[in-house]
Amino acid sequence: MNVFGAVLCARHCRAAMTDRGGGVILNQSSNSSYLGGGAYSISKLALNGLTLSLAREFAQEGIRVVGIAPGMVASEAVLERLEDTSKQRMLGEQMIKRFGRTEDLVGMALLLCSDEASFVTGQTVTVDGGFIKRL
After folding, report:
1. Element containing residue 113 per DSSP (H, E)
2. Whole-angstrom distance, CA of residue 2 vs CA of residue 78
3. What domains sit in the chain, N to C, each tagged with a CATH number?
């Protein structure tokens, strides 16, 4: 679903976006894509690759394709499910020592879909308080 759902959505909205002179497709990945292990992580890494591939394919039609890769966001479900030691370990690995908020994701999504990011495509941006460290 993580990959094929994105492919189907992109395929079905492409014509309408092209008719309107372009647009932005925003894929929802996860910082787990950079941690490895398990089907979820693998599917999200594949989605990052798909983001780049679609960006190349759709660029001539004025369509940008980008992604966000959130880390742990402090939803009720997450906070109830994780033990305190796991929460503290995760916070200890982050550069910003607080849990993510949905507003953090919304802000990045709005930026990536805005004209201010009109020269950004094919990228998946990690929004995780600095949990994943990569060059």
Report:
1. helix 102-113
2. 20
3. 4-127 (3.40.50.720)
Q: What is the pLDDT of residues 33-89, one digit of tens each?
A: 999 889 999 999 999 999 999 999 999 999 999 999 999 898 888 888 888 888 899
Query: Closest Cα partner for 19 from 60, 61, 49?
Result: 61
Percent of the chain with pLDDT over 70: 100
Give catalytic status of residue 40 as yes or no. yes
The contacts found for 34-38 with CB under 8 angstroms, 24 or more apart, are 34/69, 34/126, 34/132, 34/134, 35/132
Q: What pTM was estimated for this model as a whole?
A: 0.92
Q: Secondary structure of the chain: what % helix, strand, coil (to 5)?
A: 55, 15, 30
Q: Which of 11, 20, 38, 40 is catalytic?
A: 40
Cβ pair 29, 66 in contact under 8 A: no
In DSSP terms, which residues pair with 25 in a beta bridge? Answer: 65
Tell the residue number behind the tokens 């690759």, with chain if given.
49
